[in-house]
């Protein structure tokens, strides 16, 4: 998967939905693994900017996505297997 640079919260919903679908998970299946309802996960995907960091990191882990932070302007690490947020 490609790296993604996220600069605004408005970019997160589409990415979370895309990562979930790529992982082959329905909202119900992902919600069950996260310990929440499908409706709550749907709200998280729509309003990702308001999700707590702990819950967001847990969801990313379930989706097989890692969060990588780097200084603006730096080149990404050589590994192409991680997503840049």
Can you describe this structure?
The structure is a single chain. This protein has 85 residues and is mostly helical. The protein has one domain: Orthogonal Bundle (434 Repressor (Amino-terminal Domain)). Helix content is 45%, strand content 5%. The protein is built from four helices and two strands. A two-stranded parallel ribbon has the order 1-2.
**How many helices in DSSP terms?**
4
Named CATH architecture: Orthogonal Bundle
Instruction: Using the CA coordinates, give the radius of gyration.
Output: 13 Å
CATH structural fold name: 434 Repressor (Amino-terminal Domain)
* N- and C-termini, Cα separation: 13 Å
Largest sheet: 2 strands, parallel
Task: Quote the average pLDDT.
Answer: 88
Parts with pLDDT < 50 across at least 5 consecutive residues: 80-85
Strand content: under 5%
**Based on helices, strands and strand pairing, what is the structural class?**
mainly alpha
